[in-house]
C-alpha cells in the first residue's frame, strides 16, 4: 500500500506535476564530492576530497533556470532520487533532489521511459539557461550525479562570469533530425546514436632506446576526457605487449607485459583507458625499438709495451769516430815530438 501511495504521489516541481516516482539507490559517501553549480555560465563543477583538500575533478554542461524561473542561490545537499520522473507534459531521467522542488535531472523527454524521445530543442540549449529552476544535464552527467552523489552531498549554487577551474566543455552534437531523438551521451543508445567519444590518451616517450636503458612502461602516458575535462591517467592500463626479435617475422605476445631492455628488438605496447561516465574504451598502441648491444671498443696500442713494438733496429752505417793511420810509423799522432806538426807556409818564420 505504501509503495502504491509513493508511485502516485503528486508534487509540484518546476511548474509541472510530477508522478510515477520510482526511488533510486546510491552507494558513494556523502563527503566524497561537492557540486558547485555556476548558474551564470551553466556548468556544474565537481570537486573531490583528496588528502583534506577539495580538488577540481569534473565539469559538466547544464541548463539552469530562466530569469523568470531562476535557480535559487545558496548551499544545499542531496536528498531523494528517482530513476524517471513524469512532469505535466514532459519527463526526465536520473533525477536527484537538492533543494525542495529543485532537482538535477537529464534533459527533457516527450514520453516517460522512452529514451528516443529526448526533445531536441531542449538538448541544444545545454550550456545556457532554459529550465524552470531545475538543473538540466546531458544523460551521462545526470547519471553520474545520480550514481555517485549520495544523501548529504553538498551542493552550492552561485553566479560567476568564470566557468570554473576546468573551463566550459563543448556540447556533444545530437544526431539525426526531427523534434525528438536520442541524447548522444545516453549509454543505452546504439552505435548510431551514442556519440560520446572516449578519453584521449597521450604518450610522451622516446620510440627508440639504448640497450639496457631504464624504461617504465606507464611513465609518460596520460589520459583525459575532453567531454568533462576529467583527468583519467589513473585509469590507464597496459592491455598487451608484443615482441619481435631481430630477424624474426612475427610478433609474439609477452605474458608478463614488461619491456626487457636487454632483449633488443621491436615492441608494441597497447594502452587502454575506460571510465563509464566518459564514453567508450579508448585504445592506443605505442611502438618501441630497443637497440642492440653495442660492440666492445678495440683496445688501444700501448707504446710502452715491447710486445706491441715493431723492429726498431737501425740498418744505416755506423758513424762513430774514424780510425786514423800514422803515416810516419812513429805512433805519435798527438804532435808531442813535433814530427807531425804542420807549419803554416804563410806564417812568417820566427814569429
What are the main properties of this structure?
L,D-transpeptidase catalytic domain-like; mainly beta; elongated; 351 residues; disordered N terminus
> Nearest-angstrom radius of gyration?
45 Å
The helix tally amounts to 3
CATH class of the largest domain: Mainly Beta
How are helices and strands ordered from N to C?
HEEEEEEEEEEHEHEEEEEEEEE
Mean pLDDT: 85
Structural description of this entry:
The structure is a single chain. 6% of the residues lie in helices and 30% in strands. It starts with a helix and ends in a 61-residue tail after the last strand. Strand 17 and strand 18 (252-253) form a beta hairpin. By secondary structure, it is mainly β. It is elongated. It has a 9-stranded mixed sheet. Strands 15-20-19-17-18 form a 5-stranded mixed sheet, with no helix packed on it. The model is unreliable at 1-28 and 327-351 (pLDDT under 50). The chain folds into 2 domains: 2-181, Beta Barrel (L,D-transpeptidase catalytic domain-like), CATH 2.40.440.10; 200-290, Immunoglobulins (Immunoglobulin-like). It contains 3 helices and 20 strands.
In short:
Helix content is 6%, strand content 30%. It has helices at 2-7, 120-123, 139-148, and strands at 11-13, 16-18, 33-38, 43-50, 53-63, 74-77, 81-86, 91-99, 102-106, 118-119, 135-137, 154-158, 180-181, 200-203, 208-209, 221-224, 236-245, 252-253, 265-273, 282-290.
Amino acid at each position: 500500500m505504501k509503495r502504491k501511495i509513493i508511485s502516485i504521489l503528486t508534487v509540484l516541481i518546476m511548474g509541472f506535476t510530477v508522478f510515477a516516482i520510482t526511488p533510486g539507490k546510491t552507494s558513494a559517501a556523502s563527503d566524497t564530492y561537492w557540486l558547485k553549480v555556476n548558474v551564470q555560465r551553466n556548468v556544474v563543477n565537481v570537486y573531490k576530497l583528496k588528502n583534506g583538500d577539495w580538488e577540481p575533478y569534473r565539469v559538466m554542461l547544464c541548463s539552469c533556470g530562466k530569469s523568470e524561473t531562476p535557480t535559487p542561490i545558496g548551499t544545499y545537499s542531496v536528498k531523494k532520487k528517482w530513476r524517471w520522473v513524469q512532469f505535466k507534459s514532459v519527463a526526465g531521467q536520473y533525477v536527484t533532489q537538492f533543494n525542495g522542488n529543485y532537482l538535477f535531472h537529464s534533459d527533457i523527454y516527450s514520453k516517460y521511459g522512452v529514451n528516443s524521445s529526448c526533445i531536441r530543442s531542449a538538448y541544444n540549449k545545454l550550456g545556457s539557461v532554459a529550465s524552470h529552476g531545475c538543473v538540466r544535464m546531458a544523460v551521462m552527467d545526470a547519471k553520474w550525479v545520480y550514481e555517485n552523489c549520495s544523501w548529504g552531498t553538498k551542493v552550492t549554487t552561485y553566479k560567476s562570469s568564470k566557468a570554473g577551474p576546468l573551463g566550459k566543455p563543448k556540447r556533444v552534437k545530437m544526431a539525426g533530425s526531427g523534434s525528438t531523438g536520442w541524447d548522444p551521451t545516453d549509454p543505452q543508445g546504439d552505435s548510431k546514436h551514442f556519440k560520446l567519444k572516449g578519453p584521449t590518451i597521450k604518450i610522451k616517450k622516446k620510440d627508440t632506446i639504448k640497450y639496457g636503458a631504464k624504461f617504465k612502461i606507464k611513465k609518460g602516458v596520460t589520459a583525459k576526457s575532453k567531454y568533462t575535462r576529467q583527468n583519467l591517467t589513473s585509469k590507464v592500463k597496459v592491455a598487451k605487449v608484443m615482441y619481435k626479435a631481430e630477424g624474426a617475422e612475427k610478433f609474439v605476445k609477452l605474458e608478463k607485459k614488461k619491456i626487457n631492455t636487454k632483449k633488443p628488438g621491436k615492441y608494441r605496447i597497447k594502452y587502454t583507458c575506460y571510465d563509464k561516465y566518459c564514453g567508450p574504451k579508448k585504445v592506443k598502441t605505442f611502438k618501441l625499438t630497443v637497440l642492440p648491444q653495442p660492440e666492445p671498443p678495440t683496445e688501444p696500442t700501448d707504446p710502452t709495451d715491447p710486445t706491441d713494438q715493431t723492429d726498431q733496429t737501425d740498418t744505416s752505417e755506423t758513424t762513430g769516430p774514424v780510425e786514423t793511420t800514422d803515416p810516419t810509423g812513429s805512433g805519435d799522432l798527438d804532435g808531442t815530438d813535433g814530427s807531425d806538426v804542420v807549419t803554416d807556409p804563410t806564417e812568417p818564420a820566427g814569429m
